[in-house]
Amino acid sequence: MNQSIDLEAAKAAFFASGGQLVVLEGFTYRPLPPRKGPEAQPAPASKAPAKKAAPSPRKEKMKARADQVAEMAKTMTCQQVHEATGISKQALFRAAREGNFVFRRPERKKSANSKRDAQRQIQRNLKRIEELKVVQRICALRDTGLHRAQVAEQLSLNYGTLVNIIERNGIDFPRVRIRK
């Protein structure tokens, strides 16, 4: 059967039995009511001036301790202040951050570093002397007419190492031999 025919038959039966058509009201927009937050309420008529609470003895003690630490920080490191006062390092760093001051930097020991630096310098000098001997051999083999790969093979060096030595020492050793 056809649906439109069935619908028409159902409507006719409805109206024949005494049914009436009711029209419903559609949607109408209503804005939200105004907010009743603290900014919407009127200010109190007369407000008494706020009393400043007396600082607690604990806060006074903390302030005095922070001032003492700030004074000590001018001439002492954090470790020295920690040892003198017994205050933890974390608390000292927090006080420094909040009080906007810095501790003195610890001085480095120069005796141990200077020995180590001297040894490193000696090792660098020895490596440089060995490299200069290799440079002399490279120049001698270059003058005999060998090309880079042959020189690297003769000196049992990697080709890349040979190139690095050539560039580091400014040796005139062209990649391709110029034939005359």
TrEMBL record:
Residues 39-56 have a biased composition (Low complexity). Residues 29-62 are annotated as: Disordered. This is Helix-turn-helix domain-containing protein. The lineage of its organism: Bacteria, Pseudomonadati, Pseudomonadota, Gammaproteobacteria, Pseudomonadales.
